[in-house]
Specification:
mainly beta, five-stranded antiparallel β-sheet, about 5% helix
C-alpha cells in the first residue's frame, strides 16, 4: 500500500492539463467553461442520532465528534457562472451561518480554508474538480447538501470527471490536527453498504461505516501517515480518481 509521488503528479496532470491543445482555439480571458454542480451530484446526509461511534484497531481509536450546533439551515452558494484560465475571483454567498469558514479542495489535493466570501482561485486548462463546503466553529465540515457544492470546471478540454459516481474527498488530518474528516459525494456509509477504510502508517486499518468527524487517539509516534479509501461492502476499492487518497502525512500535538 505504498503511495508513490509520481502517481500524484500524474493525477494532477490528468485533471489540470489540456491534453489536446493542437486542435483547440486559444481561449479568451473570459472563456466559458463546462460546469457541473450539485444538479448532477448529491450529498447524502448522515441520519442524525445520539450515538457516538467508535472504531479501533491495534490501540488506535477513532471517536466521533458530535457538532455542538445544528447547522442544517446553513447554505453555501457560488455566484460565478463563468471562469477563465488563471486566477479567478470567486464570490460565495452564505446563509444562516455567522461563524463560518469555507474550505475549498481542488482535485482532492490543494486544500485551503477561507474566512472571507471572496476567494481567489486558480484554474488550469483541463478538468478542475472543485469542492467547497462550510465548516463549523471547530473547522469541521458541515455535512449537508446545502452547505456543500461541487463543480467540475472544464477549460479547453472534454469532461473527464463523472459527477454521478461515488466520490471520496480527503480533508483532515492536516499538519498537527489529529482529526479525521472527509467529504462524500453520491454515496452514504453503512454497516451493510459502502465504507471508508482508514490506514495508519501503512499497517493498521480501521473500517468506518458512519460519515462523521473523528478524534484520532492512540498513535505513539509524532509523525504519522494516513490513507483513506472508499470501499464497497465486499471491501473492494470503488473506482474513482479520488477514492484512494494515497498516503498523507500529519503530526500529533504533544498533548494529543
Amino acid at each position: 500500500m505504498r503511495f508513490k509521488t509520481f502517481s500524484l503528479i500524474i493525477l494532477l496532470f490528468f485533471f489540470a492539463c489540456n491534453t489536446n491543445n493542437s486542435n483547440k482555439e486559444e481561449s479568451s480571458d473570459e472563456a466559458s467553461s463546462s460546469i457541473k454542480n450539485n444538479e448532477t451530484s448529491l450529498i447524502i446526509e448522515q441520519k442524525a442520532d445520539n450515538d457516538i461511534a467508535t472504531f479501533s484497531a491495534d490501540g488506535i481509536t477513532l471517536t466521533e465528534i458530535k457538532p455542538t450546533k445544528n447547522n442544517k439551515e446553513s447554505a453555501l452558494t457560488l455566484t460565478n457562472t463563468s471562469f477563465k484560465e488563471g486566477i479567478n475571483l470567486l464570490q460565495f454567498n452564505i446563509e444562516n451561518n455567522q461563524n463560518y469558514n469555507i474550505t475549498t479542495i481542488q482535485n482532492n489535493y490543494t486544500i485551503a480554508t477561507h474566512s472571507n466570501t471572496k476567494v481567489e482561485q486558480e484554474f488550469l486548462s483541463g478538468n478542475n474538480v472543485f469542492l467547497a463546503f462550510l465548516t463549523n466553529e471547530n473547522n469541521l465540515g458541515i455535512k449537508t447538501n446545502n452547505a456543500t457544492l461541487l463543480k467540475n470546471i472544464v477549460l479547453n478540454d472534454e469532461v473527464l470527471f463523472d459527477e454521478k459516481q461515488p466520490h471520496l474527498f480527503y480533508y483532515l488530518p492536516q499538519n498537527n490536527i489529529a482529526i479525521l474528516d472527509f467529504c462524500l459525494v453520491n454515496t452514504s456509509l453503512s454497516e451493510n453498504g459502502n465504507k471508508v477504510k482508514v490506514t495508519f502508517n501503512g499497517t493498521t486499518s480501521i473500517v468506518v461505516n458512519k460519515w462523521a468527524s473523528y478524534q484520532i487517539d492512540g498513535l505513539s509516534e509524532n509523525k504519522n501517515t494516513i490513507r483513506i479509501e472508499l470501499i464497497d461492502k465486499a471491501g473492494n476499492l470503488i473506482p474513482g480518481p479520488f477514492n484512494d487518497s494515497g498516503e498523507r502525512t500529519f503530526l500529533m500535538n504533544q498533548n494529543s
